[in-house]
Amino acid sequence: MTAMVRAEQVTKRFGAVEVLKGIDLTVAAGEVACLLGPSGSGKSTFLRCVNHLERIDGGQLAVDGELVGYRRQGDRLHELKAREVAVRRRDIGMVFQRFNLFPHLTALGNVTEAPVRVLRTPRERAREEALRLLERVGLADRAHNYPSQLSGGQQQRVAIARALAMRPKLMLFDEPTSALDPELVGEVLDVMKGLAADGMTMVVVTHEMGFAREVADQVAFLDDGVVVETGPPDEVLGRPRHERTRAFLDKVL
Amino acid sequence: MTTTEPPAVRVVPVRHYGRWLTALLVAGLAALFLRALLSSPNLEPGTVAHYLFQDYVLDGVVTTLWLTVLAMVLGTTGGILLAVLRLSDNPVLRGVSWTFIWVFRGTPLLVQIIFFGFLGALFPRLTLSVPFTGTVLFDRPTSVVVTGTVAAVLALSLNEMAYAAEVIRGGILAVDQGQTEAAAALGMGPTLTLRRVVLPQAMRVIIPPMGNETITMLKSTALVSIIAGRDLMTAVQSVYQNNYKVIPLLLVAAIWYLALVSLLSAGQWLVERRFGRGFARGGVR
């Protein structure tokens, strides 16, 4: 199996604070990996590093065999220009905790924007594709609504459709249900389960233990900037080997 | 629950005695002022009416209008550029933008207008040549190139650029960081993100102060009368310098400025509604 995401000793610091202290993690193509851990453990920061929203300070991070943010030439690494970084990001979809939909565009406009402007997809084809995606997330009838007219769960589903419109090979989810009212969490998780069943490679930062147990192929528990333990959900969630994992699970389960 | 009707209650509304009192007071003062105004022999309503639609006054109105439009278009375009430069990662460009804004916001518009009007005194000829070859591409006396009108447009739009830049920079900074990140995650480059995601949202914040800028600009065009800018104020001035009917002609100018500003305010309302789409207040549902 090929590795979609391969992180080796990734470090990241904000000023004097070292947030990532050497993350090792491999996510295979087609796999769903859930990152768990207390807040401040570095899981969201790591996720943002994967598509270069944050720049790593040390170690190596590669997506689908290509280094994130750098180009290897001989034995040197060249930092990529903003435009080159943008090209690499096309293949990586991202869903944010606070949705970050474009408020001045309708649901349909949000989904077609990047395909039309970035990939130069003909408008009519992008529109058909977008309507199909909105139908897939159960929002075909909301295509012409603005984000402010949608509930949190609906907005997050539009955000997922927006990311899928770029036909990514990897999807990153940064606490996708944390900003939602409890009764709206299920509709978003259902869409994500559907994606997983279709074989999408996904890295999900979440506090939804049930989702991790049911959908993940791999669960990684992070604490204080390192991966404490990783493995299939039954093992990590059911029979944690480390004291820190056990202490965390006791609190949240 | 009982089914009996609630007892009828007599409601005594609050009496607003203060309102009646102020209305009376204001009406009285207005009457006094109006009597004083009409008793002046120099008001001459007939003269006002006579000059209001004279050809040269109308020409002045047209000049004032296109001067405003041109200065605002150039000023806003340059303002966007300056704002982007000030927010750029390149420290040299940031410095250039800061210096430009510093100079043009730091000196009076009237000084700038006169300065451009007398540019010929500083540079008698405008010459464009290829360095080290002696090939001259362009060479004219400054006074021929920078006419009164050109000087007016230059001064007004350069000054406006400095103010617009700060308004636009504020608007850009008001857009949530998450919007830029979402655009970046979709593979949109910095320019595309600015044009399609950040600026359209910044517009909502930018438009009210820019409407203000436009109204200020319309009235600032009156200053170019100092270099014979052929605007409304220049037209009115040249009349009263001949016939000494200062007050009626100033009234003519005031009536036109007030009418044009009212028109601009209506335009601003329409534009604000357009860019309010997708937002809870004032949006098109």
SSE blueprint and pairings:
The complex is a heterodimer of chains A (253) and B (285).
Chain A: E1 3-14, E2 17-28, E3 32-36, H1 43-50, E4 58-63, E5 66-67, E6 70-73, E7 76-79, H2 82-89, E8 92-95, H3 107-117, H4 123-136, H5 152-164, E9 170-174, H6 182-197, E10 202-205, H7 209-215, E11 218-223, E12 226-231, H8 233-238, H9 243-252
Parallel strand pairs in A: 3-10, 3-11, 8-9, 9-10
Antiparallel strand pairs in A: 1-2, 1-4, 4-5, 6-7, 11-12
Helix pairs in contact in A: 3-4, 3-5, 4-5, 5-6
Chain B: H1 17-39, H2 45-52, H3 55-86, H4 91-106, H5 109-117, H6 119-122, E1 125-129, E2 136-141, H7 142-145, H8 148-173, H9 177-185, H10 190-220, H11 232-243, H12 246-275
Antiparallel strand pairs in B: 1-2
Helix pairs in contact in B: 2-12, 3-4, 3-8, 3-10, 3-11, 4-8, 5-8, 8-10, 9-10, 10-12, 11-12
Describe the structure.
The complex is a heterodimer of chains A (about 250) and B (about 280). Chain A has one domain (about 5-250): P-loop containing nucleotide triphosphate hydrolases (Rossmann fold). Chain A contains 9 helices and 12 strands. In chain A, about 35% of the residues lie in helices and about 30% in strands. Chain A is α/β, with parallel strands linked by helices. Chain B has about 280 residues and is mostly helical. Chain B has one domain (about 55-125, about 140-275): MetI-like fold (Orthogonal Bundle). In chain B, about 70% of the residues lie in helices and about 5% in strands. Chain B contains 12 helices and 2 strands, in the order H-H-H-H-H-H-E-E-H-H-H-H-H-H. Chain B has helices at about 15-40, 45-50, 55-85, 90-105, 110-115, 120, 140-145, 150-175, 175-185, 190-220, 230-245, 245-275, and strands spanning about 125-130, 135-140. Chain B has a two-stranded antiparallel sheet. The longest helix of chain B has about 30 residues, at about 55-85. The chains are: A alpha/beta (about 250), B mainly alpha (about 280). The interface of A and B includes residues 82, 87, 98, 100 and 148 of A.
